[in-house]
Specification:
heterotetramer, A: 295 residues, alpha/beta, 5-stranded mixed β-sheet, 5 strands, 34% helix, 9% strand, globular, C: 149 residues, Rossmann fold, 4 strands
Chain lengths: 295, 268, 149, 352
Amino acid sequence: MIEELRNKARELLKTKQVEAVIGYQRASDGLSAIPCVIRSEEEAGRLIWDAACVYNLCGYLKDFRAKKLGIVAKACDVRAMIVLISENQLNRDDVFIIGMECCGVVDEKRARVSGRDGSDISSADKCKSCASCVPLAYDCLIKEKREKAKVSEDADKDKYEPVRKLEAKSLSEKSKSWKDEFKRCIRCYACRQVCPMCYCPRCVADQFMPVWFSKAGGIEGNFSWNVARAMHLAGRCIDCGECERACPVGIPLRDINRKIEKDIKELFGYEAGMKTDAKPFLACFDKNDPEDFIK
Amino acid sequence: METKNIYLPRLAEITDIKQETPDIKTFKLKLSLVYKPGQFVEFSVFGEGEAPFCISNSPTRGPGIECSVKMTGKVTQALHELNIGDTVGIRGPYGNGFPVENLKNKNILFVAGGIGLAPLRSLINYCLDRREDFKSITIVNGARSSNDLVYKDEYPIWEKAKDTRLYLTVDCQEDNWSCMVGVVPRILEQIKPVCQDSVAIVCGPPIMIKYTMPVLLKLGFCPEAIMTTLEMKMKCGMGKCGRCNIGPLYICKDGPVFSYAQVKNYVS
Amino acid sequence: MINPRTQELKNSRAESWEPKIAAFLCNWCSYAGADLAGTSRREYPPNIRIIRLPCSGRVNPLFVLKCLMDGADGVLIAGCHTGDCHYSEGNYYARRRFAILKKLFEFLGIDPRRFQMAWVSASEGDKWVKVVKELVEEIKKAGPILAKS
Amino acid sequence: MTLRILLNRVKTDTLLKKNMTKFIKKEDLYKLLNSFLKDFEIIGPKQIANKGIFYEPLESIEDLYLGELFAIEPAKKFFLESSECLFHSGFLDGKATVQDAPLPDKRRIIIGLRPCEAKGLILLDKVFDSEYKDRSYINNREKSVIVGLACAKPDKSCFCTSMDGSPTGSRGMDVLLFAVEDGFIVEIYSDKGKEAFSSLGKEPDEHQNKTLSAYKQKRSELIGKNFKVPGDLSPIFESDYWDKVSFPCLSCGVCTYLCPTCHCFELVDEGRKMYRCNDGCAFSNFTLEASGWNPRPTKKERYRQRVFHKFDYFKKIFGENLCVGCGRCIRHCPVKMDISEIVSNAPSGAGK
């Protein structure tokens, strides 16, 4: 599979179909992956593909505006690209999607906090509820030769089960547990930087007239930052789980994202990252949208 | 043993405000401060934040300090809204200032662009007040337009001073403008100031510094004889907060005055 | 844990607490409606701080967050009834946006009573009075926001 | 040398002429710490399920975690707090006033620091306790007794030995614990440590002394990474090497905020209180000026700044690398960038 990928990259670069290929190479620890950009045929041998290729690489596309690029993408990454295309942030013709059939990636985060190397860690949570190992869109597909893991087996399981459990708690329980979570937030903005959807040239968190999210003591600033981040992703988040993975202090950001995703699905029947011609969720409306919460 | 709070500002009352250009105001503050020309202070507009400004009057002309502020961001905007009698916080002075001792018995060439005249004004007036310590003084002052020239009141005084020449220039020709036209480096090429026994002191926007340096070198100034003041975003003023370094030099602590020899690798 | 600045607010109001409510009103309907309530001398609690905006669609969720985090005990957004928007469809966008935000607030443990929305037309001075009265009552029940932090 | 100057700050706080060594049983250590709870704030690592290890003020010594895993955030946050009020401004009788923020008074014991983190504090001292003295940092330093824990099992991203450190290093420690069978060998280096720990335990026997020296030797050998930092990076300042290596960088603040030595901050005035808040060179906002001009506009310049600050500028100013090799920025980097690899592979000379 890796050779197939490398050959494809060589071919794309040789025929000048793309200027560069964004993919994964082996990190210094010999186990994990690190994003890389391949600009020549000779470099293509650095490309790798395995369960350590966790990251969503779409974020790097913005470093190369208006250039023809190849990108190694899993099913979840492609959904992110679909949202970017529907928001006019990405031109479909500018990317050559090397779709990877994916059997799930490792739980890099759990490996990190438990001091293990990842090889003995099962697939990430997001993969357990992943419906498809084949991307929705691609220009070429590299097939998985191994026996397919049981990715789709669990997919029927209710994806929103954890969200429902949290919803069922009492208001004061919820308040306390989220405050405990946000208390630890160090405002490193890794959740923002790693997110393929966070492409604003200047984030509201970086504006200072007014200061939207106080940095001074207390958890108010942390709370509003995390709420605002999630709100900005409403109807756009494709649950790639990168924010939660990147968070060094372990705030369960996916729970928040999925809560919004679930509400949008239930109330409005909308799902992000399925069609390139879909209108962004908050940039459209239906006259019959629910309004029972309005007096 | 209690350590003093290095971040605590002193209070200073605004005693005078002068509108220099549509977006530049000069604030005069009641504050006794020992400083050198070229040093700067941190202004604190309470509730808004802090910003660094160089002291633009000469220490020979106390009491009180003057700072010229161009309205660009949050703090400067708040500062522009203040009135005479309001109080601001001042920390400082910080920075090295101009090496006035090394300038003695030298010809001095001042090259300023826009608000870059502010730190130079402090030194110009210092030199004029101790005129006998220095040889000839040449001032080249440029601005985008005549509206953007600062300290206009002082030009006649400077022109009249002994062995002192003042060249004013604007970028484009305008009506009723009788001085020179053209960007500062071109003017320098025209007037060809002497380089023997001379020191050039350059202050202005980065783009002006970039194009002025080669001209000065061509005129025969050696890199050690060219002084410039650099600017970057600063917060603490004490070399701690980590943002204003040019190589291993902190502009707030080791600068803002550098010789071109010190920073030529970084100003490109 | 509490922002010291809000701590001061908290101390100053510990005794006889009255809720502070920020209300974002659309210029064309709700503001006129509130005005009508005033000119027709209808009484309602003074806990409301009105912020006039061109349209309920102008309200950014950040406004709501900032109010709640800086010490407002409640936030109200009022706009034209659907179909009546001066800009044709601003309130439709607002409706979607805040349906999500309201659910999210509840999920994160913010009392849903603290954030409410209402459609109040220019002729509904009575409805405005009713909305405010109910809101203030509910927020009084919910208590000061900072006591909960 | 630096250590001595540091500890001399408070009169009662000098380095001992000769280290004291003790052996203490695990339950005795916990008992001792329990007895400290009423006079001291005790801060130590605590395990939070699924999230990792965090330093927190402990309410009960039961929560103390003295195992092999490393805390995610370094103990830096108790000295250089992530946001700290410096002064208040206000009005009194119609006149503007400014007032120092009060300093906390409570003495505290910080337990479980790894040798790399303690060394990080020594490096921070050079910045905050030098020409301009930062009073709240110094206060936090003076009020703390540092009880370290020698590393039992270094992580694969650790490289302290390349930074002149050691998994059993004593620099910056008042007391260092070595976890051995059925207890801890305790080395006491300062008066502060002696005051707190000398009363308990017994002299270690010969076997335990042997264990200790074997421990010290073996741990250094466990560090997998070993490299030499180039003496002067300035010839490659303009190299396109930085373009290449900074490509994966996301410009987030994980590496700077989790670094035991990164100390850049910003000053924020909120509600007439001036706060010193964490900031980091990876953010584009860090050097963005009000005019819109940014001297470090892309991640290349920003990443280069981080590497140069640590391995060039700081060394030129203070004679040491601003890095202790704790490996946090490698472990927790969301895209697994490895600063040790980047520095050790840096081209020599001005190669393009």
